[in-house]
Amino acid sequence: MKPVKSLNHIGIAVRAIEPQQAYYEDVLGAIFEGIEEVPNQHVRVAFYRIGDVRIELIESTDPQSPIARFIDKRGEGLHHLAFLVDDLPTRIDQLTQFGLNMIDTVPRPGADQMDVAFIHPNSCGGVLTELCQTRTR
């Protein structure tokens, strides 16, 4: 199995993006890259860059969405780590054969022109893990 290419981003669940912006921009010096709505995941995502790593602030647009439920249960904070991979469908098959519990068994559209698939935290030491690949279609 080929290693992941790099850490793509760190996802942080927030109740609202705007109140967090001053911290990321003024305190950390992160570069704001924009906001995108991802309707199929019921979220708005703000992108920040610090060096080679991106931080995504994820805000729910639906009180029944997975992000809203996450915040209700655990509060705001670290939601997931995302790693860039080559050939996401093949990687999903390999991880399934390896015995990992996949949330997504086929890639789905994510933010920033990426296809994504999540590995369940019970297979990753309690850390929700996202695999992503730049969308080619």
TrEMBL record:
Record key words, sorted: Metal-binding
VOC domain residues: 6-134
Listed Gene3D superfamilies: 2,3-Dihydroxybiphenyl 1,2-Dioxygenase, domain 1 (3.10.180.10)
Signal sequence interval, chain numbering: none
Domain of life: Bacteria
Matches recorded under InterPro entries: Glyas_Bleomycin-R_OHBP_Dase, MeMalonyl-CoA_epimerase, MMCE/EMCE_epimerase, VOC_core
Pfam family of the protein (one): Glyoxalase_4
Alphabetized NCBIfam families for the sequence: metmalonyl_epim
Similarity comment: family membership: Belongs to the methylmalonyl-CoA epimerase family.
PANTHER family per record: METHYLMALONYL-COA EPIMERASE, METHYLMALONYL-COA EPIMERASE, MITOCHONDRIAL
Protein name as catalogued: Methylmalonyl-CoA epimerase
Species per Swiss-Prot/TrEMBL record: Novipirellula rosea
Organismal lineage: Bacteria, Pseudomonadati, Planctomycetota, Planctomycetia, Pirellulales
Gene transcribed to yield this protein: mce
